[in-house]
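Exercise: predict the fold of this chain.
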Amino acid sequence: MATTVKSTAAASKATEKRKPVFTKVDQLQPMTSGHTLTVKVVDSKTVLQKGRSIALNQRPTRIAECVVGDETGTIIFTARNDQIDLMKPGMTVILRNAKIDMFKGSMRLAVDKWGRVETTEPASFVVKEDNNLSLVEYELVNVVEE
């Protein structure tokens, strides 16, 4: 009987989730992951749309670049497949477990299969469009210690 009490306590502790820590766009750094953001979609543009291939088990691939932001700045979000349907201009979305990918030296926000994109009620903030973090170019520098 004591073992069932221990296993029940362990199960409740395992299912206990921690509260998400929301970050702002201007706090994003290159090559980081695990970000949770609430952003508004400013613009959305499809950049790749491949039809069905010869193999029937593959779905068509769609990729769109969306400018998203909050009151601190904007960044380009790379939306894939079903995420594109949620990224309409003017919508407010929550990006969970987002990561920063580097593309040609600039930051791009992305959510892979471990993350989640979900719509939410419209936010009250105004997007600061003059601070686009994707326009900042980064260069990897190796430092040699002597």
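Check your answer against the key: Residues 101 and 108 are 5 Å apart (CA to CA).
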